[in-house]
User: Fold these one by one.
Assistant:
Number 1:
Amino acid sequence: MAGKDISVSTAKRYWTYYDHVKQFIEEEYNVEDYKLKDIDYQFITKFEFFLKTVRNCIIIPH
């Protein structure tokens, strides 16, 4: 898909975030899969903390 519908940099960002979410779910919930319907405010705040502390990511509001 990269180069056709989306740019290469967008595809790279997608896979980077995918890896972050996957690592977070595995470490926080000890599972390999997590249902979208179970994502709530607590999940988001824990994920934000994970990004800031474990992955050293900066959260920039849009």
Number 2:
Amino acid sequence: MPVTEDTTQEEIRPSPRDAASGRMPRWLPRAMVLALSLVACFQFASWAFHELTSLLLNILIAFFLALAIEPAVDWMAARGVRRGLATGLVFLGVLIAVAGFFALLGSMLAGQMVTMVEDFPKYLDKVISWVNDTFHTELSRVEVQDSLLHSDWLQKYVQDSANNVLDVSTQVLGGLFKVLTVTLFAFYFAADGPRLRRALCSVLPLHRQTEVLRAWEIAVAKTGGYLYSRGLMALISGIAHYVLLEILGVPYAPALAVWVGLISQFIPTIGTYLAGSLPMLIAFTVNPWYAVWVLGFVVIYQQFENYLLQPRITAKTVDIHPAVAFGSVIAGTALLGAVGALIAIPATATLQAFLGAYIKRYEVTDDPRVQGGNRKPKGESRLARARRALRRGGSQPALGADAEDGAGAALAAPAIVGAGDSAAAGGAATVGSGAASSVAVGSPGAVDAAAVPEASGDAPAVGPTAKEPLGGPVGEG
């Protein structure tokens, strides 16, 4: 008999016949089979997850890539382009950009390698001369070259490199296969986005469908906004550094500018300094002072980007705190490696926006400990009162310091207060019995409250619960 929640102790307890005969209870074999089945299912699920980790990771990358390019696909689809063709055009643009980056970087590295090989004898002569002068030796370049070429470690290194050619080729082919897998999944996710969302919503109730579609929209907005904002800042950074490198005459300025723009924007926190190190090294080979100029420009531009450029561009896309961004990158790197570092910030921005849409927030208390600085005094400033007086054409004098410090001086306008006996003061104010007076500042026909008693011969009646502040102007109602 299977063991369920409704099974009583009497049903579980062996029958007197089973107890007397010493036989196994009838429910125990089924319970053992059930436990063994659960353990086997858990082991199989763990093995399958471990084997499919690479595929699941590629699907995750493809999903975020599809979210990033979906705004561009939707924009072209809204103008009559089929989604499949629009997705293909977007991927073609991405492919051209990536190929151009690697072509520029490869040309720079190849040029540097050729230059180093050509100048190697010159550098070797300088080193040998320094050693001979310092240690009083008589080394020659021919002897050093022969010793290097016939050394055991160099021959072993060449043999190991030849044996590792097959491993390197296998890794390159594996990397190309992963790129192809990610591209294929991302293409289908972006091209068949509406069909995918329709299939997902078809298994959910109506209220859950609204929540899923809203979460999807938030993810698209944040991921796409992160990519486009970073791309724009990378373009601006690359142009700025290209101008500097061209002025200084540093070689490979276009490739270095592209390197600085991409690395500084897509690797958070340390990306700027990592990107600036390569131009500094290249500039140092031209002139050591050029490296100092490049370092100073990198630091100054970083401050300009952090305080002026980045808040304006990312205010409506991925506005997350730098500490949260840095922590998310560390967590993503620990979980998924380099891929986690790339998708950590858009994933965090999506989660933050999703939680902000569903978490209820309350009004914060007016306390100096939560204001982040000195609180500004309430009420209208003198500049605002003077500006309002100028707009009225000088018909009403602005309140000066004496009027501000005086007791009971305020601008009054015709006000109507609900039920109760009203006291009219020269037709300017109507104040209900026992009700707070409502004052409109700056309205047409407003008169000085201090002048009302002189015009009517009697001061306006103010209820016992009036809340006008003494010694200051009344704010706009």
Number 3:
Amino acid sequence: MAATDGISSRGEAKSSAVIKAEEVRSSLEQEFPSFVKSLVRSHVASCFWMGLPVTFCKSHLPDKDTTITLEDESGKEYKMKYIAYKTGLSAGWRQFSAVHKLQEGDVVVFQLVEPTKFKVI
């Protein structure tokens, strides 16, 4: 997430950050599905909309709007709104991205550890 955790792409070539995130993802427990997300401007500025991969959402997340929990590396949890038909996170995502100082170009790993809970690395 932030530059101190080694996954951020700030100061690195974007492809290098994605490769690093994929390596982290591949080291995670395989029983829990996960994906890598490269952040763009709309994820971290202005509209603060976090679109998730459609195929991941259709396979692993509820087909109705619900509350999703994101847990950061320190164990702190953040609640936000998952909008099923748009396959994305809304209300609450802005706070998460601000607290973690996420910026355009950062790369994060989402690991689904419960039906509506992700660990974010």
Number 4:
Amino acid sequence: MASLDRRNSMTLDEVGRYLRELRNLESPSQNKVCNSIITIDLAFEGTESSLSQHLSKDKWDRIRTELFDILISSFPGYWNVYEEGSLIPLELRADWPDSGYIEFCPTRSNRQSDILRADLSTIHPSIVLAMRWCWAEGQNQTTVENFKTYRESRLGDQSEEAQTVREFLDRLFETCVTEAEKSKRIAHRAWWRLSSEVSSCQDKQTVKQLKKKMLELENVWGLPSA
């Protein structure tokens, strides 16, 4: 598990609250959107049970999907297309795969951690359509203008169906924020327990393992207050 710069990262409860702000049409921040996705990924990769045992993975997957759609449609970037199970990107103008994933990197980023992936099946259909048009023209770079249709539909659709979807997502986000706040308290208690064990442990290898678990907790939940 990679370590994050805590000055630029977000805790999981902050992620939930930030997406709620985005749902209210706040202009997205590239760093915040990327950091939010990274934090969600870290939350479900950790080996410490208190990282995720009280979280609903399906709900957080839905939040991640929403964030990735916002990222790719709101910021210029370049991307590669991979067939399912492959580690080698497809050549430009190759046949678009029936299944696979996108690897996207915002243009205005110099962090390796900002290269993010999403399964093609989870990306909004209008975003995928715009990317396929670019792909057919031999391009794997996009700007916000390529996704004008998606953004307008996301922000301007006032139909009853769209309103129902927004209400559902609002409830989902509220649930996730509540989950994250509860899990944060549990994680911080676990951090203090591990810190105590580190202080009293004389075995270097055990100390190393304990500190690794502490780092996993910090990456998702931040440092507890003194």
